[in-house]
Design a protein that fits this description.
Length: 237
């Protein structure tokens, strides 16, 4: 019997995450219990676990440090921890709040938030909330924090540079940015500025970029391929 190799899996070329350095804190008080939510963008499980450890040290006298995180463009890594709360009343509701967060408009709206860790520190206020109350409290805590979060689109784009005389670089960069291209920063040598830009990694878009560049530089500018990378762009709001 011939065994066929598994079909290649198409990985998402874009997803939504927190803006760099945009981790935040949000607090809810529910029946005298304090729920302090911390959100942070993380690249891997080690980063998520480091955040939990950091908050255990900072809030060392709190009863619970519950956590949830989702990682990867395909959100393939998902973890949650109740940290002493009744099973299923803290970590999973927090994870659901991350996974179901609607990040892009559409019908239905899309949910693709990833590379985010949420930790909810709870100081018990002396009033039992019950299982249902805990589920709502932990879910609402993460949702309220996300309401205040600054989000970005993280897309895998094709990178290019364009070498132009220093005197022409500012004008070209402005015109490319105005035309909707993502600018990635400039490099320099003795005679030229290497203007960096990124476009969607498909033949039609790249051909369009070459044509636009030709019109802006009277045919003198050339796109030089610089590979691909994940690039952050603002979420339209």
């Amino acid at each position: 019997m011939r065994i066929h190799p598994p079909a290649a899996v198409d990985r998402p070329a874009a997803y939504t995450t927190l803006a760099p350095g945009a981790g935040l804190r949000h607090e809810l008080v529910i029946k005298r219990s304090r729920f302090i939510t911390v959100l942070r963008r993380v690249e891997d499980e080690a980063g998520a676990r480091a955040l939990v450890a950091e908050l255990r040290r900072e809030f060392h006298d709190a009863r619970h440090h519950c956590s949830a995180f989702v990682l990867g463009p395909d959100r393939g890594i998902q973890r949650s921890n109740d940290d002493g709360e009744p099973s299923g009343t803290a970590g999973m509701p927090m994870l659901d709040a991350l996974l179901k967060r609607e990040t892009r408009p559409g019908t239905p709206p899309a949910a693709d938030l990833s590379d985010v860790c949420a930790v909810v520190v709870r100081y018990f206020g002396g009033v039992l909330l019950g299982a249902g109350g805990l589920v709502r409290a932990y879910s609402d805590s993460v949702s309220a924090a996300l309401d205040a979060a600054v989000l970005v689109r993280r897309s895998r784009l094709r990178l290019f540079t364009v070498a132009v005389p220093h005197a022409d670089a500012g004008r070209l960069e402005h015109e490319l940015h105005t035309a909707g291209y993502t600018m990635t920063g400039n490099g320099y040598d003795a005679r030229r500025t290497l203007v960096g830009l990124a476009v969607a990694d498909d033949a039609g878009t790249i051909a369009g970029a070459r044509a636009r560049l030709a019109s802006l530089t009277a045919g003198a500018g050339e796109l030089v391929d610089a590979g691909t990378d994940w690039v952050d762009t603002p979420v339209p709001g």
